[in-house]
């Protein structure tokens, strides 16, 4: 398999995922220094929702809503951007990017695609952010 997302899923590192079910996996992005930047990945190697099963479609909305709520709760952004491109890795994954109140104008809206990849995620504070996100996701599962 030459797909990076499939390889990560096959490697089975549950610690790196914040949440998973039969259809989706949720992890924190390490590609930028934006805390709360999550990536929702389809468990199966599909390009987009046109190839999704009924179960994948049924749980897509709830997963997106849960992840968006967790981001709002933990990092309190002004907006949460969600989009999928699947150009670098042709495996369905959705970017959920918190856009803070003080985000410079150049990176707002479509500008987010030009957001710098360095510095990378802050390894010192990431564990605490992930702990809070996991706790919030678990809380949402409990209250349904
Ligand atoms: Zn794949």
Provide an overview of this structure.
This protein is of the alpha+beta class and 144 residues long. It is 33% helix and 18% strand. The chain contains 3 helices and 5 strands; from the N terminus they run αβββαββα. The protein has helices at 4-11, 54-75, 126-143, and strands at 17-20, 24-28, 38-42, 79-83, 93-99. It has a 5-stranded antiparallel β-sheet with strand order 1-2-3-5-4, covered by helices on one side. β1 and β2 form a beta hairpin. α2 packs across α3. The longest helix is centred in the middle third of the chain and has 22 residues, at 54-75. The structure holds zinc ion.
Brief digest:
The chain is of the alpha+beta class. 33% of the residues lie in helices and 18% in strands.
């Amino acid at each position: 398999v030459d797909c990076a997302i499939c390889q990560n899923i096959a490697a089975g590192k549950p610690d790196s995922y914040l949440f998973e079910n039969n259809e989706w996996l949720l992890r924190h992005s390490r590609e930028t220094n934006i805390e709360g930047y999550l990536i929702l990945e389809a468990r199966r190697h599909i390009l987009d929702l046109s190839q999704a099963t009924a179960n994948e479609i049924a749980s897509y909305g709830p997963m997106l809503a849960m992840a968006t709520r967790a981001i709002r709760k933990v990092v309190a952004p002004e907006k949460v951007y969600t989009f999928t491109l699947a150009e670098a890795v042709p495996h369905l994954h959705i970017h959920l990017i918190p856009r803070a109140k003080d985000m410079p104008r150049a990176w707002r809206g479509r500008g987010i695609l030009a957001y710098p990849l360095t510095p990378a995620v802050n390894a010192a504070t990431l564990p605490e952010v992930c702990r809070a996100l996991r706790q919030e996701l678990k809380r949402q599962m409990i209250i349904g």
